[in-house]
Amino acid sequence: MNQIKNKTNKSKKYIVETYGCQMNEHDSEKISWILEEMGYVLTDDIKKTDLIIYNTCAVRKSAEDKVLGKLGELKQEKRENPDLILAVCGCMMQRQEIIDIITSKYKQVDIIFGTNNIQKLPQLINNHLMTGSTITDIVEDTREIDESIDANRKYEFKSYVNIMHGCNNFCTYCIVPYTRGREISRDPKNIIEEIDNLAKNGCKEVTLLGQNVNSYGNTLDKKYTFPNLLKDINDIEGIERIRFMTSHPKDISDELINSYGRLDKLCNHLHLPVQSGSNRILKLMNRKYTRESYLNNIEKIRNEKPDISITTDIIVGFPGETEEDFNETLELVKEVRFDSAYTFLYSIREGTPAASMQEQVPNKVKHARFQRLIALLREIGLKENEELLNQIVPILVEGTDTNNKNTLNGKTTTGKIVYFKGSDRLIGNIVNVKINNVKNFSLEGIVI
Ligand code: SAH
Ligand code: SF4
Ligand code: F3S
User: Fold this and answer.
1) What pLDDT score does 9 carry?
2) Count of H helices and E strands in the chain?
């Protein structure tokens, strides 16, 4: 990290483009911090930049295709500006298949690094500048967490905080355990210190990040669980809202459910990816819970917190999914009444067990099921939102509409987006808004 301190690249400009999940967004904030420590300045002008970094996602083929398409377009930029450094990093780069494609067909790329060695970026840039050759540096897995890098956060009032890295679950469709390595928890001392500092600098909301926050603590020497961590964060002065992503249904504990009743800062929202409503498919997915145990947990959570918002992830068209299996998913959606859901068409990820399963579902069938699911979710989302009509709800104001600076947006503690008129001086504050119009997945209101 010493080279980071040498501000040798003063006034050089950079662009970081991010694909994928919150984990990647936060990694990009760290990359941004590293580059600014080196003296780089952010720009949005591709014609004037010295460095472009693509932080990529491998979760679905469409995400990878998008990045390869964009990289192709950059060939021209590189021709016009041969000094431009082009770097790619993130989950895609943890796949040898992709590295082979990039090094053979995308020769305009100068630096390739992965998810486990972000801190080496200054060294990789120097190596490239010194040798003029393509630098590839991938660390397959790591048992160490580099605590020396900070993040250049997009917002002052809300922040992502990693509490763990990696995943041990190996759901049969998922590439993440291969791109992010084995699970490892951060020392709670470091997490608390980071959040304490954030709070002192005006942060009101933290979103704790992990592929399965419910197994937080498993790699620590002492017994310290996710609910313990939530309790300690709840005690930090200045923090007003605590969110987390993502919680695996197989590991949800009564202790976590009880936290909703006990911790005043814990947001009234739980994102609990169900993936499918069919026990047969859940088994093929290696999810290690059943439809019944999932529903049982939802009931317990609603007993603890009746007005909690529950959201989920659903995959449509997993190999072998029959009409009957899919109907079970629809029935589960009706039973739980999710406030909203991220829905995905199953995408074959080479190297995962599901990729070689027989009975891949034809695209046409997948798409038709997908449309039916979306229609149902829209209908339920609207009805759930209608319950909020005329209610007064506290909103953390996050920003203004890009086209209309007088329209503010923010989120309820249940994670719903609300639009309302007001001055941008309110950004970063929690204000009371009366809801006067509802849509499928958003709300409108007036500040009172
Ligand atoms: N660790 C989190 C998030 C994983 S990735 C979790 O377990 O919930 C986010 C979502 O992408 C998953 O929940 C899943 O719904 C979806 N997903 C993962 N692999 C996929 C694939 N091969 N095809 C389609 N969707 C996928
Ligand atoms: Fe993927 Fe499953 Fe791990 Fe989530 S828990 S990242 S879906 S393997
Ligand atoms: Fe996230 Fe995509 Fe990687 S979802 S963990 S950026 S594969």
Assistant:
1) 46
2) 13, 19
